[in-house]
Specification:
The protein is α+β, with helices and mostly antiparallel strands. It has helices at about 5-15, 20-30, 45-60, 65-75, 120-130, 140-150, 160-170, 260-265, 270-280, 285-295, and strands spanning about 40-45, 95-105, 110-115, 135-140, 210-215, 220-225, 245-250, 255-260, 315-320, 325-330, 335-340, 345-350, 350-355. The protein has a single domain (about 25-155, about 200-355), classed as (Glycosyl)asparaginase (Glutamine Phosphoribosylpyrophosphate, subunit 1, domain 1), CATH 3.60.20. Strand 2 (about 95-105) and strand 3 (about 110-115) form a beta hairpin. Helix 4 (about 65-75) runs antiparallel to helix 5. It is globular, with a radius of gyration of 20 Å. It binds aspartic acid. Aspartic acid binds near residues 245 and 258. Aspartic acid binds near residues 237, 238, 239, 259 and 261.
Length: about 350
């Protein structure tokens, strides 16, 4: 925490350091003192991330450092084609990353969008919150900001993601000179197996969100992604939008989203969930409320099943200040990652619609 806050504001705002609180209350949690931190919750691909975040919090780390380091594991993993290195590119074949962070104790936010060539956008977003008076830096400006701070440029497009992009490109238009996929042999594997079940191979979604709570009741959250595959260059999803793909209120809870970002933005998803938790909803009920709102407001025919239900997936994740947590998906069959006193594991998401009714 001392690294994140400047000393003047730190002393003025908080009398006990997060690390001290974590150490003191961590003992109580280990002895089974009821709900509370440390708890970390994440999307399915964040099993290692929640374990790492919780371990760091137990060792006294600030919750923001814990979640940013937790998701770094996935950003650095070339086999996860939805985040960081190996992320699926935009329609020009260029990987563009979005990320946001929020630090509960000081209610500070930072984000980057359409960031190219930098493997760990969440760490850059943390620097936006820590070192600047801004909340969001995009594109060329974000890259220059990251380079000034010493972040190294990397080619983020792996061979696998380049081949997947080429395959998509070849299917775009029957009358261009790109061969159709059945004329050559490129497998469709290597994508998030859960996302691949969502029905659309035209575009692929995937992201990691992680929120964490310390034993002292401090919260932080992060969302990081390569966004919608094959997007129009410069398209920004919900992940770097504070209040949409991420929102943290230290007095209430923290929430985040994955899935169709446009739908999440249009209902201010994460902010809606935190507001519902403030009114007394459990995290799971708050996630379901936001999903219902999306379903009610999905009125464009191209986004609907014949039944009128949304033809896309959205998932929400939330943790409340008292340590209760929950997640829900628009369509059934999804899981999330959580780590608390019982260790890191996957649990089933609640859901709005049963996939059997798809
Ligand atoms: N929400 C992300 C976006 O729309 C993608 C995802 O989570 O799948 O950019």
């Amino acid at each position: 925490m001392t690294q994140f806050l400047d000393r003047r504001r730190f002393i003025g705002a908080v009398s006990v350091s997060a690390a001290a609180l974590a150490t003191k209350a961590g003992t109580a949690r280990a002895q089974g003192a009821g709900p509370g931190g440390p708890v970390a919750i994440a999307s399915f691909n964040g099993l290692g991330s929640v374990a790492k975040a919780r371990d760091m919090i137990r060792a006294g780390a600030d919750p923001l450092d814990a979640v940013v380091e937790g998701v770094r594991l996935v950003e650095d993993d070339p086999s996860d084609q939805t985040v960081g290195l190996g992320g699926l590119p935009n329609e020009d074949g260029v990987v563009e990353l979005d990320s946001s962070v929020m630090h509960g104790p000081m209610h500070r936010a930072g984000a980057v969008a359409s960031l190219r060539n930098i493997q760990n956008p969440a760490a850059v977003a943390r620097e936006v919150a820590r070192r600047t008076d801004h909340c969001l830096i995009v594109g060329e400006g974000a890259l220059r900001f990251a380079k000034k701070l010493g972040f190294k440029e990397t080619n983020l497009l792996t061979e696998e993601s380049r081949k997947a992009w080429l395959e998509w490109r070849s299917k775009l238009n029957d009358s261009d000179d790109w061969l159709a996929p059945d004329e050559f042999d490129i497998p469709l594997d290597g994508r998030d197996p859960q996302a691949a079940r969502e029905g659309s191979i035209t575009h692929t979604y995937g992201t990691i969100h992680c929120s964490a709570l310390t034993p002292g009741g401090d919260l932080a959250g992060v969302t990081t992604t390569s966004g919608l595959s094959w997007k129009i260059p410069g398209r920004v999803g919900d992940s770097p939008i504070i209040g949409a793909g991420l929102y943290t209120d230290n007095e209430v809870g923290s929430a985040g989203a994955t899935g169709r970002g446009e739908a999440v933005i249009q209902i201010c998803g994460a902010r809606t969930i935190v507001a519902r938790m403030e009114s007394g909803d459990t995290p799971e009920d708050a996630c379901l409320y936001a999903l219902r709102m999306i379903a009610d407001k999905t009125r464009v025919a191209r986004l609907q099943r014949p039944s009128g239900k949304p033809n896309f997936q959205v998932l929400f994740y939330a943790v409340r200040r008292d340590g209760t947590y929950g997640s829900a998906s628009m369509w059934s069959g999804r899981q999330f990652a959580v780590s608390d006193v019982q260790g890191a594991r996957h649990e089933d998401c609640a859901f709005l619609f049963d996939r059997a009714d798809w």
